[in-house]
TrEMBL record:
InterPro entries, alphabetized: DUF1867, Pyrv_Knase_C, Pyrv_Knase_C_sf
Name of the protein this chain belongs to: Pyruvate kinase C-terminal domain-containing protein
Residues annotated as domain Pyruvate kinase C-terminal: 18-164
C-alpha cells in the first residue's frame, strides 16, 4: 500500500482547513466512522462537524483549571452547536500528564507518562495530542477500541495533525496502534 503524508512547513491553526479536507478524504476511503478532535473552545470541532457531518465526532477539551482558576475554556456558542448535533464533549484530565504533572510540579523530576508524552512530541505536539485524546475518549467509552478511528490534534489553536489509529484504554496503553499519519507539521 502506498499513501501520502502531508507535511506542513509550520505548526498551527493555518493548517486546520487542509487537515479537515484530508481527513474527510481518508475517512471516506476507509469507511472510518469515528473522529476525535482536540478542541479547547469547541471551534475546531464545530468546523469538523460542518465539513464532515456523517462522522461520529467526539470533541475533547482541557480540564477545568488547565490555565489556572476553576474555569473551562469552552465557548458556549460552540458548545450549544455541538450538543444540538449530538456531539459529545469530553472534559477531563489529560491521559499523558494528569497527576504525574502535579507530582513533577511539586517535587521535581519526571514521571514515566511524561516521558511517553515527550517522546511523542519528538514527532510533533499534534502527534502527542492525537494519541492522548484517543486514550481519553476510549476511557470515557466514547469510541470503540476494536476499530480504527481518526484523531485530530494540534499546536495551540486549530489542528495541524491527523492520524489513523486503533485506540486503547489507559490501562492497556501499549495496545494502542498508530496505523497512519495523514498530516503533520515538520518539526
Amino acid at each position: 500500500m502506498e499513501k501520502k503524508i502531508v507535511y506542513f512547513e509550520n505548526p498551527g491553526a493555518e493548517n486546520t482547513d487542509e487537515v479537515i479536507k484530508l481527513v474527510k478524504e481518508r475517512k471516506d476511503e476507509l469507511g472510518i466512522e469515528n473522529i476525535i478532535v482536540a478542541s479547547v473552545s469547541g471551534a475546531t470541532s464545530v468546523k469538523v462537524l460542518e465539513n464532515i457531518p456523517d462522522a461520529n465526532i467526539v470533541s475533547i477539551t482541557h480540564h477545568a483549571g488547565f490555565r489556572g482558576g476553576d474555569e473551562l475554556e469552552l465557548n458556549l456558542e460552540y458548545t450549544e452547536k455541538l450538543e444540538n448535533a449530538g456531539v459529545p464533549i469530553y472534559v477531563g484530565s489529560h491521559s499523558l500528564s494528569g497527576v504525574g504533572r502535579g507530582i513533577s510540579n511539586k517535587f521535581g523530576g519526571i514521571t514515566p507518562v511524561e516521558i511517553i508524552a515527550g517522546t511523542l512530541r519528538l514527532f510533533s505536539q499534534g502527534v502527542k495530542v492525537c494519541v492522548e485524546i484517543s486514550v481519553m475518549a476510549a476511557d470515557a467509552g466514547l469510541i470503540p477500541t476494536d476499530k480504527e478511528v481518526i484523531a485530530l490534534g494540534g499546536t495551540a489553536n486549530g489542528v495541524d495533525t491527523a492520524m489513523i489509529l486503533k485506540p486503547a484504554h489507559m490501562g492497556n496503553f501499549f495496545d494502542l496502534k498508530i496505523n497512519e499519519i495523514i498530516a503533520m507539521p515538520r518539526p
